[in-house]
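User: Just a sanity check before I run the rest of the batch. Below are the structure tokens for the first item. I only need the designed sequence back.
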């Protein structure tokens, strides 16, 4: 029996939503903030809460996996009995992301984490990779330093026991990570006044965290994550074929149907094939498309005489690692994401390298600090060479397979400002490009509507926060405050309308009226990173200083 998406029970906030909606006829920031303050509790999960063990995306009995070699946590048998969950141990110790294939496990399940964590909301009932960074920002803004540290401790635990910060702590995510924010999470916890009892504890924690942060960084320098010979990185999932979480979905059939309806826009996604291939054809499809015998999702991914190519599935998986699922910027349905050296990813890695430099210095590792400074300088030079387009005044993603930059702007062009790697001249040029993205409700993803949720007219909390905080850090305070006011007003208007906070918004209309025609069509209630961005943008509007990430960038060295 398929588990119904339990958005009401997972949020645990039905009464809160209804009561607030009944009382909020006009936008009121105070009401929005009051809701957010309460929402952290409804979105927090731990093994004390049986609802944390259930996965609305799958239809199997709950299974909880412990890492190999980990002593049995206290109370786990009681949890198993009370929550009617099966507890298993992973068959091997994982030292590298992708080392254990999820298909080798007898059942999908939740991966154990030792500390409480905040989930995004709705069907996203687990701890997500890049969501967690933004959620942590919100927790720190709300003076919940202990829970913010818990989030980072869980991310470090994932690196130690599962090979890296995961897309989320489910077994079917063991082959991919998400946008790399772990170093920022560590840095922000180190700076939090309530995270440690004294300086000795803070130092001991950094001694533990630093090598794990380095290990997580190494994911992005592995050959699979290299963007050809550009010296830059790309997103790449270490699995093959369709993703298991699409079980019961028509998503892949929708991709096939779209490509058939737009043949001129087909990057080579389609493979002519039977719906029920014989053994010989099925053997060919293992390399040309996917393994029908091994995956029910693969078997069902057929429409009108066609299946999807193996390369499309690599791109689809890479798109999910990027967090931009679904977009048309990196090919229709994001299916060529793995062909790109992305501005966003490499900006995050530059910041990561600068953070590792700072951690190494704090630990007295001078030679290592210089190594990280050199790595950051090298990445900046490669970005200036490959991604900066002076004639456009923007950073543009680069298709290293085709050997040409993307012709389509994307809001990640502002992420180098958050990372602190742009020169003053580059920053000034970028600020002039705000009209490409700016709408009534804030910053849209781009200026080309595709019907997918990570394209125009939609805007998201993380992309707005990174762009706005970066602009503010480079001295474009008026722009930053104007955009912060627009985005928070969008949230206030939507909240006044129905008493909910959503994962994404319509930037053209300045509300939560989201009509999607390609890919995921829901606008989930919750929502962790929107709550966080709202609080951070409110601080900016109140005159709080620019975020430390961009202000502390080593401008004299890199520029």
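Assistant: Here's the designed sequence for the first item:
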């Amino acid at each position: 029996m398929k588990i119904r998406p339990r958005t009401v029970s997972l949020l645990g906030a039905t009464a809160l939503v209804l009561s607030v909606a009944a009382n909020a006829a006009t936008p009121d920031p105070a009401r929005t903030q009051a809701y957010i303050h309460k929402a952290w509790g409804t979105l927090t999960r731990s093994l004390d809460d049986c609802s944390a063990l259930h996965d609305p995306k799958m239809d199997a009995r709950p299974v909880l996996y412990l890492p190999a070699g980990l002593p049995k946590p206290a109370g786990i048998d009681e949890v198993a009995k009370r929550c009617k969950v099966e507890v298993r141990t992973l068959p091997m110790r994982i030292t590298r992301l992708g080392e254990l294939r999820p298909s080798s496990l007898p059942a999908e399940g939740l991966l154990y984490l030792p500390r409480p964590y905040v989930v995004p909301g709705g069907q996203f009932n687990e701890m997500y990779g890049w969501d967690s960074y933004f959620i942590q920002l919100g927790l720190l803004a709300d003076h919940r330093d202990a829970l913010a540290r818990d989030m980072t401790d869980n991310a470090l635990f994932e690196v130690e026991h599962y090979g890296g910060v995961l897309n989320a702590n489910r077994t079917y995510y063991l082959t991919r990570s998400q946008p790399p924010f772990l170093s920022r999470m560590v840095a922000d916890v180190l700076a939090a006044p309530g995270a440690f009892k004294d300086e000795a504890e803070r130092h001991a924690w950094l001694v533990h965290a630093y090598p794990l942060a380095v290990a997580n960084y190494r994911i992005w320098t592995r050959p699979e994550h290299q963007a050809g010979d550009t010296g830059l990185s790309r997103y790449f999932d270490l699995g093959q074929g369709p993703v298991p979480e699409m079980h019961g979905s028509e998503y892949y059939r929708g991709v096939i149907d779209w490509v058939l309806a737009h043949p001129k826009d087909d990057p080579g996604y389609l493979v002519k094939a039977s719906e029920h291939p014989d053994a010989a054809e099925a053997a060919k499809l293992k390399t040309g498309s996917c393994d029908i015998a091994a995956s029910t999702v693969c078997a069902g991914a057929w429409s009108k005489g066609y299946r999807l190519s193996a390369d499309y599935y690599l791109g689809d998986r890479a798109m999910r690692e990027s967090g931009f699922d679904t977009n048309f910027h990196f090919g229709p349905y994001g299916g060529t994401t793995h062909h790109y050296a992305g501005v966003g990813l490499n900006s995050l890695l530059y910041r990561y390298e600068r953070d590792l430099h700072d951690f190494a210095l704090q630990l007295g590792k001078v030679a290592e600090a210089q190594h990280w400074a050199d790595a950051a300088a090298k990445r900046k030079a490669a970005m200036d060479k490959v991604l900066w387009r002076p004639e456009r005044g923007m950073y543009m993603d680069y298709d290293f397979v085709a050997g040409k930059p993307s012709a389509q702007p994307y809001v990640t062009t502002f992420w180098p400002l958050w990372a602190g790697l742009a020169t003053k001249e580059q920053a000034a040029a970028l600020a002039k490009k705000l009209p490409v993205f700016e709408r009534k409700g804030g910053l849209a993803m781009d200026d080309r509507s595709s019907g997918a949720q990570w394209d125009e007219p939609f805007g998201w909390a993380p992309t707005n926060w990174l762009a706005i905080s970066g602009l503010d850090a480079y001295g474009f305070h008026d722009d930053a405050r104007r955009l912060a006011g627009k985005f928070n007003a969008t949230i206030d208007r939507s909240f006044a309308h129905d008493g909910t906070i959503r994962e994404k918004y319509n930037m053209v209309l300045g509300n939560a009226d989201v009509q999607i025609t390609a890919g995921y069509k829901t606008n989930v209630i919750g929502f962790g990173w929107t709550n966080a961005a709202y609080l951070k943008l409110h601080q900016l509007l109140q005159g709080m200083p620019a975020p430390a990430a961009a202000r502390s960038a080593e401008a004299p060295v890199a520029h």
